Amino acid sequence: MPGSLIFHPPLSVHSISNDRRRSHLILQFSHKLLNLLNNSQEGVLLPAGELQQQGIVKLQEGSSAWECMQKLLADVPSFSLPVPAGTNEITEYPFSENLRLNAHTLSLLSCLFDDGLIRPEYTDTLSVHLEEMQVLINRLVTHPEEKLSMEEAAAFTHMSYSNFCRSFKLMLGYSYVDFCNMIRVRRAQELLQNSNMSVTEISALLNFGSVSYFNRIFKKITNCTPLVYRASRH
């Protein structure tokens, strides 16, 4: 939808389909950007208001946030995805361009804050473990068949069990168990659609423990059973 704005909270799993009819402006910035503005507290920005409830908001043409988006669109370099093989990757922008883009980005964040669409979340420990949490998320996404307990995940990120549980839910919006189940179900969907593995084999591969538990979690997330899902994709 032209003019729409989507915020992905820190570490959230998402993707963009290869639709050449649309153009997407992707803003990716580190929590360090916020720390430069406020060196007394660590924090991240999270969606609020309509953006939190709907996950997407349509910016009104002529609004302050809309004007900031137009400036970003005018100044940010554009390229098509996927990047053709052999094409040089953009590793960094010249200082003047980087300064201008940072200014536009901060102006946009200020407008969204004024409109009640984002809110700061301050904590002394959240951003300290952000990079370690990212490594954990990458491990979970790329190896969904690996059964990593919550205690093991907490140790992996060098956090206490209670702090890990609280921080994981705050950062991703899901509990650790729900997130792992979601990742495993996404992998199960791929296997159901692209392989001849049985439901029992997929359940065992992804360490669901039992076929009945696999069926229950799969239906909870997709609103259908694995067999119904497979039949609908063939």
List the helices and strands and how they pair.
Blueprint: E1 4-5, H1 32-37, E2 43-47, H2 49-54, E3 57-58, H3 64-75, H4 95-114, E4 118-122, H5 130-142, H6 150-156, H7 161-172, H8 176-194, H9 199-205, H10 211-222, H11 226-232
Helix pairs in contact: 3-4, 6-7, 8-11
Describe this structure in a few short sentences.
The protein has 234 residues and is mostly helical. The chain has helices at residues 32-37, 49-54, 64-75, 95-114, 130-142, 150-156, 161-172, 176-194, 199-205, 211-222, 226-232; strands at 4-5, 43-47, 57-58, 118-122.
> Count of helical segments?
11
Oligomer: single chain
Helical residue percent band: 40-55%
How many strands appear in the DSSP assignment?
A: 4
Taking the alpha carbons of the first and last residues, their distance comes to 30 Å
The low-confidence runs, each spanning 5 or more residues with pLDDT under 50, are none
What does this structure look like?
Helix content is 52%, strand content 6%. It is mostly helical and 234 residues long. It has two domains: 4-122, no CATH class; 127-232, Homeodomain-like (Arc Repressor Mutant, subunit A, Orthogonal Bundle), CATH 1.10.10. The longest helix has 20 residues, at 95-114. The model has no long low-confidence stretch (mean pLDDT 78).
Descriptive tags:
234 residues; mainly alpha; Arc Repressor Mutant, subunit A; two-stranded antiparallel sheet
